[in-house]
Design goal:
Shape: elongated
Largest sheet: none
InterPro entries: DUF1146
Number of helices: 3
Number of strands: 0
Structural class: mainly alpha
Number of domains: 1
Oligomer: single chain
Order of helices and strands: HHH
Keywords: Membrane, Transmembrane, Transmembrane helix
Strand content: under 5%
Protein name: DUF1146 domain-containing protein
Distance between the termini: 22 Å
């Protein structure tokens, strides 16, 4: 059971990082950082990792909390 949960957590992290990366592509960071387009790309990757990890942690915590509500009823 613990191995399955670890795999699902990893998939969740990767999914939300990919969604964050896709969403951040719409923001033109290269306009803000005119002389540094390579750094703008690195910034997008780092922001997508941070945002994806945060969103994924929130949803994983929410799912765990909902699963633990069962113990309140028993």
């Amino acid at each position: 059971m613990l191995g399955i949960q670890s795999v699902l957590t990893l998939i969740c992290y990767l999914f939300f990082i990919a969604v964050s990366f896709w969403a951040l592509q719409a923001i033109p960071f290269y306009k803000f950082m005119g002389k540094y387009p390579e750094q703008a790309r690195v910034l997008i990757v780092l922001l997508s990792v941070a945002l994806g990890y945060t969103a994924s942690s929130f949803f994983l915590s929410l799912i765990t909390t909902i699963r633990n509500l069962i113990f309140l009823v028993k």
